[in-house]
Protein 1
Amino acid sequence: MGEKQYQLQPLPYDYKALAPVISEDLLRLHHDKHHAAYVNGANAILQKFEKARKEGTDLDLKAITKEYSFHFGGLFLHERFWQNMGPTGKSGGKPGGRIGDAIEKEFGSFERFKKEFSAVASSVEGSGWAALVFCGHIERPQLVQIEKHNVNVTPQQKVLLVLDVWEHAYYLDYKNDRGKFIENWWNVVNWDAVEKRLP
Ligand code: MN
């Protein structure tokens, strides 16, 4: 032991900061319970590997690597999600600068991007994410729909902006109205943070 473990990254703002788009109660539950569970899950897998290697026992490697991808995906996407949001009243709106230009160039307009990204989010079957990624091969932003935390992930495409549409992300505040959550969520997007991710 003594090796590095995964850590639960604290929120970059107060638990009340995103209200009323995301209430304090929901943010606490989402960060302190759901996000934390993926961090703990990933660390538990590291321990299983360490134990089995030490004892020379076999693992179900197909199952454990799948589980690792799920938990690591969960912890990574939640980190990005918290980072790409900012306090109500100081966030949202139409982005300018390099990110605004990159979006307009790829999607034609910000409105068109918003419409496509929202549709990616609303059409997730069950649990998943909408993501704006940057594909280095073509140096262009692209949309991705991630199922769970790890299915349809495009390796090496840099994650610029994500929206969590698992039920746990909105149910407490919006019940089953995912569409309303998505609509309101645009008001807490931190475009400065998104732009910083743009290569
Ligand atoms: Mn979540």
Protein 2
Amino acid sequence: MLIATIETFILRVPLGGKTFYSSQAKFPERNSLLVKITTDTGLVGWGEGGQYGPPEPVASCINHVLAPLLIGTEAGGPVVISERLYSFSRDFGQKGTYIEAISAIDIALWDIWGKALGQPVHMLMGGAFRTSVHAYATGCYYPDRPWDQEQIIADIEVEAASYVSSGFDILKMKVGLLSVEQDMERVAAVRRSIGPDIRLLVDCNHAYNAVTAIRIGRELEKFGVHWIEEPVVPEDRAGYRRVRDAITIPVAGGEAEFTRYGFRDLFVEGCVDVAQPDLCVCGGISEWIKIQTLASSFGVLVVPHVWGSGVALAAALQALATIPPLPHTANPIVLQNEPIVEFDRKHNPLRDDLLVENFVLENGFLQVPQGPGLGITVDETVLRKYLIPA
Ligand code: MG
């Protein structure tokens, strides 16, 4: 079974009036870079590379550098192919675009391999610990309109309550765009709205230096927060350690980290309690397996970061199915030793419309797709609707 073609697709959907902000970025659109690999036997595999950064460099890397290396070669054995691609690009691509491109190709090859063997990816990875994954709602971003703190507080209370009424019992909100005082008012409003029993996660998107992050962390302790995400910039591993040593809230991070080597440094230096490799960023499923193994040896729970299209979410669900409870216990408890899946709640047609299948939230859980490969079917009519000409 040989690789016959490798095609890339840049998808883009303007969000118009639904534009939102994190502490780092304005989100006026959704975009995704998808790759479609077709074999000489007619099998098709889909992958995705990158998260919210511009998809063009990743597409270029695949089209002009990596695809020519692969066309006409054996399509099986994604681990072997990924290892070879990383070795090829090591001298100039240990992080960033090259790894995102390898991620996309790797995910597509796992999809093909599963279809060739008639098994879902999680079975090829060794089997599933769970057939559905406890989901958390990511929301409570910043709106795209003139700031009115009173209105924002009123709106965020309504938004947070809406997630609880749609079945979530874990919610993640954003901080870091405003002053500590203004953001703590937002956190207080969300906690007031959802009550004491809903688990609350707080994502800083690396808005702070260590000393401010510690100040924020101590404030968040009063609101029963279950993790603080990316408190400092990803390069500041000493800062991560300072924050982790200073507060009792678990520290999460890693969505902007790459490969086993990047995560090794996070673990060895004691930076995180929860590691968040993004399947479409960290090196794909092949590299994610190594990161998960490393994490388990350091007692770090892995909760993949999920952004992008339905392809990215399907890949994450396949991987999540395979994570053992950490540590093992007769009664695994969510977040204590059971992983969760990120389910962003902002408008995303690339996730909600692109696939023939729908992701269904039932009692706060998302089902792991059970069909061969990633277990999904890309609707190419929808794909063409969002396609940007190359
Ligand atoms: Mg995040």
